[in-house]
Amino acid sequence: MPAPPEILIHVERDKPPIQCATVAEMDAVLDRMHVEWTKKVAAEEKACPQSLYVQVAPYAVSFGLGSEDTYLSVHPDSFDDHDGYFWTAVDRTKPSEGTDKMFYGDFNHDTYWCPCHLIPIAVARDAVRYFVEHQGPSPALEWEC
Q1: Are 20 and 10 contacting, i.e. CB atoms less than 8 angstroms apart?
Q2: Is 89 helix (H, G, I), strand (E, B) or coil?
Q3: What is the per-residue pLDDT for 103?
Q4: Max Cα–Cα distance, the chain, nearest Å
Q5: The pairing of beta strand 119-120 with beta strand 101-103
Q6: I need a surface site. Which of 58, 79, 99, 118 has the fewest CB within 10 A?
Q7: Which pLDDT score, from 0 to 100, does residue 79 have?
Q8: Is 23 left (phi over 0), alpha (psi -120 to 50) or beta?
């Protein structure tokens, strides 16, 4: 399945999304944002990674940037419908209890993820590319609903 003609990166509710025409353009934007947020987290004592989502209408994938590990959720509807179900990547080798990791954002609501839902950023980014190209969750990861 070819990549869709419009890929939207949503970071803040009050700002328009960043529009990308190709997967390569999306990757460049996400690379830049990841570097920016990683520097911010390292420089500020109370800073935390940033949540955002990539939308390929009518689907969306949510994840965080600014950390070497992140969460990843695929939503079959846009975030305008919070009643829609979603799939979240899970790493069964990690504990399901422990210190949760906070991500800022998700439309100004902080989110907290347990260790079992944190995967390496490189793995998450591969899954985001898969999502954009196939409009569904990557079969390379384990998911729970």
Answers
A1: no
A2: strand
A3: 93
A4: 43
A5: unpaired
A6: 99
A7: 47
A8: alpha
Instruction: Say which residues have a Cβ less than 8 Å from residue 139's Cβ, sequence separation at least 6.
Output: none
What own/partner pairs with CB < 8 Å and gap ≥ 24 does 79-84 have? 79/10, 79/53, 79/55, 79/107
Q: What is the pLDDT of residue 106?
A: 57
This prediction has a pTM of: 0.88
Hey, what are 27's tokens?
């990757």
CA 62, CA 1: separation in Å to the nearest integer? 21
Q: Is there a contact between 125 and 30 (Cβ–Cβ < 8 Å)?
A: yes
Count CA within 13 A, CB hemisphere, residue 8: 15
The pLDDT tens digits of the residues spanning 77-116 come to: 544 444 556 788 999 898 888 899 999 985 557 889 999 9
Please, what sign has the CA dihedral across residues 114, 116, 122, 125?
Answer: negative
What's the burial of 15, exposed, middle or buried (CB within 10 Å: 0-12/13-18/19+)?
A: exposed
Report pLDDT for 25. Answer: 96
Residues of the chain with pLDDT under 70: 1-3, 77-85, 106-108
Domains of the chain, by residue range, sit at 7-144
Choose among 74, 71, 63, 82: nearest CA to 113: 71
